[in-house]
Write a structure and sequence with these properties.
The complex is a heterodimer. By secondary structure, chain A is mostly helical. Chain A is built from 7 helices and 3 strands, in the order H-E-H-E-E-H-H-H-H-H. Classes of the chains: A mainly alpha, B alpha+beta. Strand 1 of chain A pairs parallel with strand 1 (24-29) of chain B.
Chain lengths: 157, 32
């Protein structure tokens, strides 16, 4: 059963407003087909699917409410990003960065914001901006290291 | 709830996702 932040009233309202919700009960001694299909090995595991059922984001375990909101928004953004809806992806990623600066997934959101900007505008300065933001705000993040090659792109700073 | 019902619910969620234009939030849970 859902406990902790996942049963929070605000979380439930957000889920109802933004997603189609579905639950699958897990039996580890006799995994159901959906557990096999999505390789579910632990609970809670939360997946964000597109309308075809393809997985775009996964979260295992419990996190604080703000981290959960950031993950849910990131799931929405990844569906947009992975299906080439870059304007919507940019809008959703910016929302995460502005509203959840302390969330663990926010550096990844900045990285993908840079890539989405590049893909939308075909302008590498979006990647350089992502590198600059990660380096200044989240220097210890793995995503800062992943963006390191973009430091070679000419920027304003 | 039988396995076929979880499959049915996921199928219904995908149909609703198409109709309402929303992604699907899928919670795999364990009753311990």
């Amino acid at each position: 059963m859902n406990t902790g932040p996942y049963s929070d009233e605000k979380v439930q309202r957000f889920l109802q407003d933004n997603f189609i919700m579905v639950k699958t009960q897990c039996f580890f001694d006799k995994p159901v087909e959906l557990m096999e299909q999505f390789n579910i090995k632990w609970t809670p595991t939360l997946l964000i699917h597109d309308k075809a059922g393809k997985e775009h984001h996964r979260m295992v375990g419990y996190v604080a409410v703000n981290d959960l909101f950031a993950h849910l928004e990131f799931g929405k953004a990844k569906v947009f990003f992975d299906t080439d809806h870059f304007s919507n992806a940019i809008e959703t990623l910016n929302l995460i960065i502005e509203n959840y600066p302390q969330a663990a997934i926010t550096p990844e959101a900045i990285f993908y914001l840079g890539v989405a900007r590049y893909k939308k505008h075909h302008d590498p300065s979006g990647l350089r901006k992502a590198y600059d933001a990660l380096k200044s705000k989240y220097p210890e993040s793995e995503w800062s290291r992943r963006a390191e090659p973009y430091s070679a792109i000419p920027g304003n700073s | 709830m039988s396995e076929i019902m979880w499959e049915r619910d996921f199928g219904e969620a995908k149909r609703k996702a198409i109709h309402e234009g929303k992604p699907v939030y899928h919670d795999f849970w364990f009753e311990g």
